[in-house]
Sequence to fold (217 residues):
Amino acid sequence: MPPPVRLQPEDFEVEETETLTRASTVLMLDVSLSMPMRDNFLAAKKVAMALHALISSQFPRGYLGVVTFSKVARELKPEHLPEVSWDFDYGTNMQHGLLLSRRLLARQSGTKQIIMITDGEPTAHFEPGMDEPFFSYPPIRETVDATFREVNRCTREGITINTFMLDATGYLTAFIEKLTQVNRGRAFFTTPETLGDYVLVDFLQHRRAMSKGRRSA
Fold:
C-alpha cells in the first residue's frame, strides 16, 4: 500500500490566492470630438473591448465598469462597447467621469482602480445645482479645482487612477503629473499604435502584483 499523502496548508496557497484575489476596475473612455479628429478614438475603443474580453475570460470574478466622458459623462455597460461612438461635442469633463466612476466602485470590493484614456485636458465641470456643465477652453481654474476635488475623493476612498495620454500637450502633461502626485497613480504617454500594449500589460502586471502581495501576506 502506498504511503498516505500528507497535505499542508501551503500546498493550497497559490490556488487560494487566485480564487480570492479580486480587482474592480472602471475604464474612463474619452469620447469627446477631439478623439476622432486626432485619430485616437478607434484605438481607444479597441483597447476598451480587449480589456473587457480579458477580464471576462481570465478574471471572471473581477469587475469592469465603463464610463464615457466628453462634455458630460455616462455609464456604459461593457457589453455595449462595440456600439459606442464619439460625441459630436467639445468638452472633456473629467470631474463628472471621476464622480460616476467613484460611485460605481463604491459598490464593489477588492482593490479599486480607474483607467482613464484621454487626449485632452479638463475643460468642463459641474457646479452644485447646475443642470448643464460649464465649458471653457482653455481650461479655467474653477474646472481644474472641481476636477481635483474628485481626484481627492477617489484617493481618500482608496481608488488608484492610472492615466493613458494620447497626444499629450504641455498643459495636459502638467495636469496629469499633478494628478499622479495627489493620487499616487501612474501616467503613461502613449500613441494609438502602442496604447493597447500599455493598457493590457499594465493591467496584467497589476494583477500579478496583487497575487504576489497575497502570497507574501
Summary: The domain at 24-216 is CATH 3.40.50.410 (Rossmann fold). The first strand starts at residue 23 and ends at 30. The chain has seven helices and eight strands. The radius of gyration is 19 Å.
